[in-house]
Specification:
Distance between the termini: 38 Å
Largest sheet: 10 strands, antiparallel
Radius of gyration: 26 Å
Strand content: 25-35%
Structural class: alpha+beta
Bound molecules: (2R,3S,4R,5S)-2-(hydroxymethyl)piperidine-3,4,5-triol
Length: 721
């Protein structure tokens, strides 16, 4: 049993293989965290929370002694003397803002209940705690699911209005946690378009720090991931507490260090774009939050995330299944293609081993640039006179599958759809609507809009024998007003994302054999909720090998390599202009779900051989990349190198990569100690034998004369296999 309750000391024990999450019910009926860290035996550890007091701290209603301002809490409320960030703020029918929630009961469920209309992790034993505000008849339920092997707790909350009148939820976190220390650093994944998920570390300090998005999507800029860690934590040592929201919309996670050195962390839907009317009898469910503990630094934290997401989040039909090796034509043509050029590209791909051709943006409506045509999901016969069917047929004949690009949440002003339904977009009621990439966002809070898109995209897939769909989303949302929701438009940001989930659920359930890839102007919606529907996500519009080394390194903090879609593209690179050898581009694209993004007709014979070799090589290592354990060895953020190794579960195979950023004359010789191998195995690589113990303790030595961006990739195979 992973969950136990000790009635005598009113303490809950959530026990994993190597971690414990312990909290208790205080005399005032509040939930108080006691320990989130290395596993300990069940015992009374309430001493850790005792005796905190300070002047000027108000006492809680009905208590002479309990002050919420100094109490460590699992789910703090607003307005009753705790001046730190609340987890919940409810506007009551009388205009008050102080709903209070105290413990009533709890239950342990064998199976984790699903959330309605939102992605969630599959799971087992789940603790549900019921807290109640008796005055307004509001019931708050907190859910905790334990993942024993992955060092993880998954949390969420629901609120039910049992009162007669509506209340308004101003804020409702997926989780909150008080950690009784503040000598910590924080690590975030920050960036922007074409430079997603850069690793940034800084000391935690007093006051509030926030990672957030108000863009209507989880964003390129700050991923809904944060880790708090020991000052001396690195990839291999130190405690790390990591948090990731299973949410694709506007979010917020805040840390706050208080006067007594307690660190509060909590997050969920961003309250800036959120005020939800909860009518009598209705319930509201938050998205989930994943809490991970690692006693062995960031690498273990990441392995826990990877294992958790592959086993319990990503569609099991695809999680460990070989991914299609794709040729995507975006960087081959952009909008400038016709039947002849596409058909020639497909012909050229024949026999290379590439197994899916994906026709990117520009195949529909009057889409000749990014200014027109979005929303009209029928073929542009001027460009493709024989329709998609002919291309799909040609792909099959060439031994490949056929895929298409869609951007179902958007509409261009110059489109049949917009002319027919100008009222279907998100816009302020009176002012001229904002555009982003010349396009409008469809109001996915309107059921008729989602129903219409369900129909047209279903027809598109069915009629054209489509096996692969790349689902893009190329602008941020502005003017959160809906003429459907009207005065309830403060619910739009969340209802929009519920509409996106409804469409994704519908299409991925209806077309079980179609492979869906997520995308948002590159990696603008790279989050666990998208991963629930899309087993892999296009990580960035930046396809340059060096930039990708950074992006893939940062992304791996939280997401498995199989979730990262990365392609070999042209040199000079279209985004950075950088010239890199084919071998480097292929090597970096091997450490993810691979594919190609270039005009094969522009390649010489040598590079065409490179394509074939890469497909073949990737076929040999893809099982390790999909299922293996990742060890980050050298960070491009902190060194002149990027290096990782992925080791198969039985440790009999491993793939290693080393990229040098810039050549240096008379440079130091890099010696890299490998990780994760079996010390008793003898490994063969490049015709030489190495002891696993030597590789991990003596290390591998590389030349000091590697050129700019030169990349070494090595496969280690245990002898006798
Ligand atoms: C942004 C994507 O990230 C690109 O790969 C490409 O699909 C374009 N959109 C098409 O408009």
């Amino acid at each position: 049993m992973a969950i136990n309750y000790n009635e005598r000391i009113k303490t809950f024990y959530l026990q994993g293989e190597r971690f414990s999450y312990i909290f208790r019910i205080t005399d005032g009926g509040r939930l108080q965290p006691l320990h989130f860290g290395t596993r300990i035996k069940e015992q009374d550890v309430s001493y850790i929370a005792e005796g905190r007091k300070t002047e000027f701290a108000p006492t809680a209603p009905g208590s002479e002694t309990e002050s919420l301002d100094v109490l460590t809490q699992e789910y703090p409320v607003y307005g009753l003397g705790d001046y730190r960030e609340p987890a919940i703020l409810v506007l009551t029918p009388d205009g008050g803002r102080t709903a209070d929630f105290v413990y009533r009961s709890h239950a342990v469920l064998k199976e984790k209940p699903k959330i309605g209309g939102m992605p969630s992790l599959r799971g087992g034993e789940t603790l549900v705690i019921e807290l109640k505000d008796e005055i307004y008849d509001l019931t708050l339920r907190l859910y905790y699911t334990v993942y024993e092997k992955q060092g993880a707790i998954v949390r969420r909350a629901t609120l039910k209005n049992g009162g007669e009148k509506a209340v308004f939820i101003n804020k409702i976190n997926s989780f909150s946690l008080d950690i009784p220390r503040c000598d910590l650093d924080k690590v975030c994944l920050q960036g922007g378009w074409a430079k997603e998920r850069g690793v940034e570390r800084s000391p935690l300090s007093h006051g509030i720090f926030e990672i957030s998005s108000t863009r209507g999507s989880s964003s390129h800029h700050l991923n809904p991931f944060i880790a708090l860690c020991d000052k001396n934590a690195d990839e291999n040592v130190g405690e790390a507490y990591a948090f990731n929201l299973v949410y694709s919309g506007s979010f917020s996670v805040k840390t706050q260090v208080d006067q007594l050195g307690i660190t509060r962390i909590g997050g969920g839907i961003n309250e800036k774009d959120f005020c939800w009317r909860l009518n009598s009898g209705e319930s509201f469910e938050t998205p989930e939050a994943v809490l991970i503990y690692s006693a062995a630094g960031f690498n273990k934290m990441s392995q826990n995330f990877h294992d958790l997401y592959r086993k319990f989040l990503i569609n099991p039909a695809y999680a460990y299944k070989k991914r299609p090796v794709v040729l995507n034509c975006w960087e081959s043509f952009y909008f400038d293609f016709d039947y002849k050029s596409v058909s020639k590209l497909i012909e050229k791909a024949k026999g290379t081993g590439i197994d899916t051709f994906v026709l990117d943006d520009g195949w529909f409506g009057n889409r000749n640039s990014d200014k027109t045509g979005l929303g009209d999901w029928s073929v542009n016969y001027d460009k493709l006179p024989y329709g998609l069917k002919a291309l799909s047929k040609q792909c099959r004949a060439a031994g490949m599958k056929f895929g298409v690009w869609i951007e179902p949440e958007m509409v261009s002003e110059d489109s049949v759809l917009y002319r027919a339904h100008p009222d279907w977009i998100i816009r302020s009621p009176k002012a001229e609507p904002c555009k982003g990439r010349h396009q409008y966002v469809l109001d996915f809070s309107k059921p008729e809009v989602v129903e219409y898109i369900k129909r047209v995209i279903s027809d598109l897939i069915k009629e054209n024998d489509v096996s692969y769909v790349k689902w893009d989303m190329n602008r941020n949302i502005t003017e959160f007003y809906s003429d459907y929701l009207k005065e309830r438009s403060s619910e739009l940001a969340h209802r929009y994302i519920l509409g996106v989930y409804a469409l994704a659920e519908h299409l991925t359930t209806k077309f079980k054999n179609v492979f869906f890839e997520g995308c948002s102007g590159g990696g603008g919606r790279f989050d666990p909720a998208m991963l629930y529907y899309f087993p892999q996500i296009w990580a960035s519009d930046n396809t340059d090998a060096l930039s990708r080394a950074y992006i893939q390194y940062g992304t791996s903090f939280c997401y498995p390599l199989s979730a990262i879609s990365g392609h070999v593209s042209a040199s000079p690179n279209h985004q950075t202009g950088r010239i890199t050898p084919f071998s480097s581009r292929a090597a970096v694209a091997s450490f993810c779900s691979t594919g190609f993004e270039l005009d094969l007709n522009a390649l010489d014979e040598k590079d065409m051989d490179g394509i074939k070799n890469h497909v073949k090589f990737y076929g040999e290592i893809s099982d390790i990349i999909l299922k293996g354990d990742l060890y980050r060895l050298l960070s491009p953020f902190d060194s002149n190198y990027f290096s990782q190794i992925v080791v198969s579960e039985n440790k009999k195979k491993a793939v290693f990569i080393l990229m040098k950023k810039l050549a240096c004359c008379n440079d130091e010789y890099p010696v890299i100690k490998l990780k994760g191998l079996n010390e008793n195995f003898t490994y063969e690589a490049n015709g030489r034998l190495y002891g696993g113990d030597a590789l991990m303790n003596v290390g591998m030595k590389f030349g000091n004369d590697l050129k700019d961006f030169e990349t070494v990739i090595t496969v280690f195979t245990a002898k006798g296999d």
